[in-house]
Design brief:
12% helix
Length: 418
């Protein structure tokens, strides 16, 4: 069994600014702590916090007009950028900021494997391997930020909102003007895979390698429908989970010094979630929640189109026409006539070469390669947003560039060995 440990890099950069002396460092500032300096914006009175959850008359052009006043106000609030007095920190002055959990552990993994091999013939073997990996403290290397102030939650922030000018200017006042984010490493995951490999070593002018992997890659899914009140709620297949992977490659020696190589692969569909972009169903302050009745990344696994249709019908009957936790009107959901939860990756590549021996130590090879012989589309990046148009429609191909899996392409080359 093998244990791996990794140390996060750069995760304390924002904390250094937040806990540093007032005015020092470079940080970000949430609009909820910035008052509108303009008095001529319809529907947005002067001194309204610039924290909009619905469309307003405060446009991008308006923002450019307001920026000089906003910048001057923040510079006065922050003070001397060369300050070294830690008696007042930026997080106290800004009433928002970031910090790292004082007990933040490094990510770690425990790995185990077991394999067997059997010789079918003197140049033909079959191998079976089982691999298990358990990952702990996910979030340390790739920071997972959680707003411990719950600033945007429907119930209000943990630290009351600063209302008066005196509260906003007083570093000792226990109020807030934005999120207070903590870097945590609370996730876990596990990978289980069975790999079967058949290999015929090169003999009698040909060789062959075929492999099949059946695997499961599950864990806490932080990037889809994150719940700030229950960050570990969404546990399921990770976005990188590939249940079936089949690959085959080989090489054949033809007369007249020609060689033909071939490669084929099939990767099953990735897991898929159906989300409501811009909607906060549970009041935690984050949007993009899962469609009620569905589970994170379960489509293309245990859930199918019929499950989605039933959940959409239930949503339209139960929620449509009402308001979410942020006051956003919940629309009726209309599924398109044709939609998919993704496509598998399928490709076949060919390579032909011809070797020429010019001299004893000088050899030249002419090479021709054909990628994606059948020109299969391999569509990807399917929209999972049920609000608006385009649900279940692809936005791109698996790879838009030259190479295996992309659009059919030819390549010619020469190799000189001396």
């Amino acid at each position: 069994m093998l244990h791996n440990f990794q140390t996060g890099f750069g995760i304390a950069d924002e904390e250094r600014t937040s806990l540093g002396p007032r005015g020092g460092g470079r940080g970000s500032y949430v609009g909820a702590g910035i008052a509108n300096p303009l008095n001529n914006i319809s529907g947005v009175p002067m001194r309204t916090p610039l924290n909009f959850v619905r469309p307003t008359q405060f446009t991008g052009t308006t923002l450019l007009e307001a920026l000089p006043a906003i910048q001057a106000s923040l510079e006065r609030q922050r003070g001397d950028p060369n300050n070294t007095d830690f008696s007042v920190t930026n997080i106290e002055a800004d009433k928002q900021g970031s910090f790292v959990d004082k007990d933040l552990p490094n990510e770690s993994s425990a790995q185990a494997g077991l394999g067997v091999q059997y010789r079918l013939a003197h140049d033909f073997v079959i191998t079976g391997d089982f691999v298990y990996r358990h990952f702990s403290h996910i979030g340390g290397t790739f920071p997972q930020l959680m707003d411990v102030n719950h600033f945007s939650a429907a119930r209000g922030p943990a630290l009351p909102l600063c209302v008066t000018s005196d509260q906003k200017r007083d570093p000792t006042s226990s109020c807030s003007l934005g999120p207070i984010k903590s870097t945590v490493a609370i996730g876990a995951g596990q990978y289980r895979g069975l790999l079967v490999r058949v290999e015929k070593r090169y003999s009698n002018a040909w060789q062959l390698l075929g492999s099949y992997a059946y695997s499961s890659d599950t864990g806490n899914v932080f990037m889809t429908a994150f719940n700030n009140d229950a960050p570990l709620a969404n546990y399921g297949p990770l976005n990188a989970d590939s249940r079936h992977i089949l690959s085959m490659s080989g090489l054949t020696q033809l007369p007249l010094h020609f060689q033909v190589g071939y490669f084929a692969t099939h990767v099953s569909k990735s897991p898929f979630s159906a989300v409501l972009t811009g909607i906060d169903m549970n009041g935690d302050g984050t949007t993009g929640d899962l469609l009620p009745g569905t589970v994170v990344n379960r489509f293309n696994r245990s859930m199918v189109k019929l499950d989605l249709q039933h959940s959409v019908q239930s949503f339209n009957q139960t929620y449509a026409g009402k308001l979410d936790a942020r006051g956003t009107l919940l629309p009726l959901i209309a599924l398109p006539g044709h939609y998919e939860f993704g496509d598998p990756l399928v490709t076949q590549d060919l390579r032909m070469s011809r070797n020429f021996a010019v001299r004893e130590r000088l050899k030249i090879a002419l090479i021709g390669e054909l990628f994606n012989v059948l020109n299969i589309s391999n569509l990807s990046d399917y929209s999972n947003n049920l609000i608006g148009a385009g649900f279940g429609q692809p936005k791109s191909r698996v790879t838009q560039v030259f190479g295996s899996g992309g659009p059919r392409a030819f390549q010619f080359g020469t190799r000189v060995a001396f």
